Amino acid sequence: MAKCTAPVHGHRTASGAAACPACRGRMRGYSSYSPYSSYAPAYDQSTSGGSSSSGGRGSTSRSGSKKPRWSRAGSGVVYTSAQVVSLEPIRKTVEKRASTPDLRDVFLCHAWADRLGVAKKLYDLLISEDVRVWFSENDVALGSTLLREIDKGLANSRIGLVMVTPAFLERIQGEGIAEKELSALLARDLLVPIVHDTTYEALREVSPLLGSRSGLSSAEDSLEDIAAKIAELVSVEEA
What we know:
Shape: globular
Number of strands: 7
CATH topology of the largest domain: Rossmann fold
Order of helices and strands: HHEEHEHEHHEHHEHHEH
Distance between the termini: 84 Å
Number of helices: 11
CATH class of the largest domain: Alpha Beta
Strand content: 5-15%
Largest sheet: 5 strands, parallel
Helix content: 25-40%
CATH architecture of the largest domain: 3-Layer(aba) Sandwich
Number of domains: 2
Strand order of the largest sheet: 4-3-5-6-7
Radius of gyration: 28 Å
CATH superfamily of the largest domain: Toll/interleukin-1 receptor homology (TIR) domain
Structural class: alpha/beta
């Protein structure tokens, strides 16, 4: 059987096709041929791993994204499946504490060094989302220990946000958080870690218990999106 010469020489012209011993006589009207087209798989955009714009807050949709049951109607906020799973117990706590009077929505725990930086930025973003925030810069006495701040803040708020930064890791490592006390706080499903400029792996090295709790990270979401997710998480209809 005559062998096609296209993979070697190409059939970029009608005369090239006519010169091929296998194709001449049946390539009438053929205009072009790519020597690689027989081997390249078709590209299916529906199964590609690329992201597409979600149309809200500059986010992009991600593989496995979904809407949690507490998501606001018409919300453009996108969650990963892992985020929905990790936030579900926190949402149940919010719902249980919804009827408790005079609680702030969230308590924002942070390192002293972050009070005018990323913690203040997140605080401002939460306020802009109409979230009532217990902010240690405004509400906690200077010099309090970290666990005392967290416990006091949670007593006056529906949930707690722990701003995990390099400065926070230094603070809790030097302070030596009592794992027993932290375990009691985590068991109440009140704490949401928010990791910024560090990793959960680094957090686990300092506090395995706190690092075992999934939360949100600025490596996945902008601070604006994190604030929007927290706002949805704590939003409940007043009785």
